[in-house]
Design a protein that fits this description.
Aminopeptidase; about 35% strand; two-stranded antiparallel ribbon; Acyl_CoA_acyltransferase; transmembrane helix; membrane; Glycylpeptide N-tetradecanoyltransferase
């Protein structure tokens, strides 16, 4: 019996070594990064929080010659326009989907923060021919970009371990990591990430952690949370039944009433969610003002009972069919039988208002926060046309994986 146990232990150890070796070979760049790798077994028992508190040193992935990293407030109009054109040409362009933002759909995400945001540009020298003069002119071709912007994180440890206190910290959210379609799979993205991280850490020593959002392949990293994102075609949907005014009403959030939303969030987030990640209220107001996000509150008996968060995705599923994204909801009802009916009905009414006013015809909804209640209801009558694995993971911070229904994120 003893020999059998040793035999199985030996097999298990061999499997672990082989898996770790495979990951290190396949994802060579990520094995060198300060992330929670799936083979970091001691982190499962004793997650350290910040992995590398010291400033990063230069390594082979740092490319200061061809990559320029700048603070958002120092960007020129020329750089911003070039950045937007690059995204429109290279970010999510295929037969099924097309991401087509304007400057007004991108830049508001970098306004209203208490810490600076960063932009990285990977340039390659190229020679342009002047056909009239028969001469060549040296120019710089943009082939890769990346941005980061600050977010506030609150981990409600008391929900996970009774008696524990909250953890509050700031992180940088990584967005717009994109490489020219002609230059992909050539090691450009790792250089952009490493160089950007080096510059960011050395220019803002207060924020040591970043947050990535990934689809499909997680590159051997233990995620903060993992879930599916669903897509529903709204073409054949009919107008939902209106809320009974004597029972509930919907109010769109704006500058004059957003304090009611944050009062509601303060009362419910620590009770319902293990982690909350969000920007400053001034940034949220900027996104509302520019119609990049839409937030609705359901009011019952003079109190906010639920909240619905939608985003203009700028993604077209087909010609003339832009998607609206529901990235979070909060169900504040204490009576779940009442909640499941009113909460979903409020979502459908708010969605109809936003979609009708902005001509959205496709719904993307992430199975995160209280969205699972809505997704289960939608799937009763509508089959999703898209299901995409999605995950968030920390960079330079190790923490346990959380259930997506216990995670609330605005980013």
């Amino acid at each position: 019996m003893y020999q059998i146990i040793l035999y199985f232990i030996g097999i298990l150890i061999a499997i672990i070594i082989l898996v770790a070796a495979y990951i290190k070979m396949k994802f060579r760049f990520w094995t060198l990064q300060p992330v929670f790798h799936i083979y970091d077994f001691h982190y499962y028992l004793f997650p350290p929080g910040i992995i590398n508190p010291e400033l990063p040193e230069k390594n082979k992935y740092c490319n200061f010659k061809e990559i320029e990293t700048e603070k958002y407030d120092s960007l020129s109009e020329f750089q911003i326009n070039k950045f937007v054109r690059f995204i429109c040409s290279n970010y999510l362009k295929n037969e099924d989907n097309c991401y087509s933002p304007t400057k007004n759909n991108i830049m508001p995400y970098f306004e209203g923060h208490n810490a600076t945001s960063f932009f990285s540009f990977y340039y390659e020298d190229e020679l342009l021919m002047n056909l009239k003069k028969g001469t060549t002119v040296q120019d710089k071709r943009l082939i890769g970009i990346m941005t980061t912007r600050p977010l506030n994180v609150t981990i409600n440890k008391g929900r996970i371990n009774k008696g524990s206190s909250q953890i509050k910290m700031d992180v940088y959210y990584v967005d717009h990591l994109c490489v020219d379609r002609m230059y992909r799979k050539k090691g450009i993205a790792p250089q952009v990430i490493q160089t950007h991280h080096y510059y960011q850490r050395h220019n803002n020593k207060k924020i040591k952690i970043s947050l990535f959002k990934r689809e499909d392949n997680l590159t051997g990293i233990v995620p903060l949370c993992v879930y599916n994102t669903y897509g529903f075609d709204m073409d054949k949907w009919q107008k939902p039944i209106d809320l009974m005014p004597n029972i509930a009403s919907l109010t769109e959030c704006g500058k004059t009433n957003i304090h009611h939303l944050f009062d509601f969030m303060r009362e419910n987030i620590s009770r319902k969610f293990d982690i909350c990640i969000q920007p400053e209220i001034s940034n949220i107001l900027e996104l509302i003002k520019t119609k990049n996000i839409f937030i609705y509150m359901m009011i019952c008996d003079g109190e906010v009972k639920s909240a619905y968060f939608y985003r203009k995705s700028c993604t077209f599923i087909r010609n003339g069919c832009e998607a609206i994204s529901c990235f979070a909801t909060i169900d504040g009802f204490s009576n779940k039988e009442k909640s499941n009916g009113l909460f979903v009905q409020g979502f459908k009414n708010a969605l109809w208002k936003v979609a009708n006013e902005n001509k959205f015809k496709f719904l993307i909804i992430e199975d995160i926060s209280d969205n699972n209640i809505i997704i289960d209801n939608l799937k009763l009558k509508t089959k999703p046309t898209m299901i995409s694995p999605t995950a968030y993971f920390f960079y330079n911070y190790a923490y346990h994986t959380l259930s997506s229904k216990n995670v609330f994120i605005i980013c």
